[in-house]
Amino acid sequence: MELTVAQRFSGQLMFLDLDRKERHLIAATDDSGRSITYGYICDFSEEFAKYLPQRTLIFILAENSIGSLLGYTAALSNRIVPLILSANTEEGLFRSLYDLYKPEYLWVPETKADGKEVIFSAWRYCLVATGHQSPQMYEELALLLPTSGSTGSPKLVRHSYRNIEANADNVRRLFKLNGTEKAMAILPMHYTMGLSVIASHLLSGATLLLSGRSLLDKGFWATLKEATSFTGVPYSYEILIKMRFTSMDLPNLRVITQGGGKLTEATWNTLAQYAHEKGKQFIATYGQSECTARMAYLPAEMALDKVCSIGIAEPGGQLSIIDDNGNETFEGEAQGEMVYRGENVTLGYATCREDLMKGDGNHGIIHTGDLARRDADGCYFIIGRLKRFLKIFGLRIGLDEVERIIKTEYKVDCYCKGNDERLIVLVTNPKLQDVLPAFIEEKTHLFHQRIEIQVVNEIIRNEAGKVINQ
């Protein structure tokens, strides 16, 4: 007798309780104008399982579309482990990950099947077998995401089923989500915040308005008028404000929320004032891929008073600070490295195929690498970074990785630094000043106008190789 989805899923209900929702309710729409119900997602997951065994490694080349969403939910519901990448990933970057991890299957847009034998297709996506055998994987490994966008790093974040469900439930409680919500989902699926929006709203029985359209597209604005909530990164809001978003009539929109990097004070104040005047909520959030996207939020009623604060820990989580003397505190004024505890803290990293067998290396605790200040009211403010990465326009930019790709391509010495506004690249070859912005944009998707190239005579290093005086 054929097993049901619930029986196949280790005796548990289908992932994110999808089979507990009313089957006729709309789960998602996309730019095609078509929609799917919760019942259809469950039926599709059962169909998908006929072609793949459990504990299989699959690469999903993701778009914000129904076909992409169905592959994701079907994989998780059948204990198939996906690595989610952008459908627009550069071929060379995709190939390096493919050769290293050797997935057994691909779930890709039909346009990217490249003449391979298609096993199954639906919603403009197709399932392709690669001929590889899946590696042995940790029993609770559920999902793999890249750590640094499109720079080609082999380092992946390993998520468990509990991580994703805990984060979805935390976010549901944070925003008080229910089945009446219609969430504008424009953040890419391969981006941890994009997946957080998807998981929390599916858990809540809400409707996802999936869109891959540009913010300049008329279709984007037509969809936004239906939405009850909108989640954006700093760049999204910079564009929206320039387009006079705050003066538009959007009566259904109740919540605007931000993640993926630090807003400027001007942008923050504009959004907070807009929400206050229009009777909406502006809720800023903070997170990392290593914590399944979200870790902290600022309650809407504090937005005007706590400018640029990440607020307090999300429901189900706990924040603390370790000062320079190694003392950890959970309340009162303090400054130091911020630490987070919660069930959404991921398992750790993978840098090769064999690492997929690793268990939980974090045990629910993550040292964020962010330097934070906690005020007397218990609100946290990010004031710096302890690690070499930036967050610009919601993109996590690994400085060491950008240096690596420049050195590999151009055989030149370089050094990267910057802040949450700009990536600064020091190079010793003046001929590269004009070509590097476009090259870095291609590799990282960081807008070239946020990249500054500085030509120097020499990059000075100490005996240990550490750059000094730059």
Plain-language structure description:
- The chain has 470 residues and is α/β, with parallel strands linked by helices.
- The protein folds into three domains: 131 residues, Rossmann fold (3-Layer(aba) Sandwich), CATH 3.40.50; 225 residues, Rossmann fold (3-Layer(aba) Sandwich), CATH 3.40.50; 66 residues, GMP Synthetase, Chain A, domain 3 (2-Layer Sandwich).
- 25% of the residues lie in helices and 28% in strands.
- It contains eleven helices and 27 strands.
- The strands form six sheets. A nine-stranded mixed sheet has the order 2-1-11-10-12-13-14-15-16. A five-stranded mixed sheet has the order 4-3-5-7-6, with helices on one face. A five-stranded antiparallel sheet has the order 18-17-19-21-22, with no helix packed on it.
- Helix 3 links the parallel strand 3 and strand 4.
- It is globular and about 60 Å long.
- The chain starts with a helix and ends in a 15-residue tail after the last strand.
- The relative contact order is 0.10.
List the main descriptive attributes of the protein structure presented here.
470 residues, alpha/beta, Rossmann fold, GMP Synthetase, Chain A, domain 3, 3 domains, 9-stranded mixed beta sheet, 11 helices
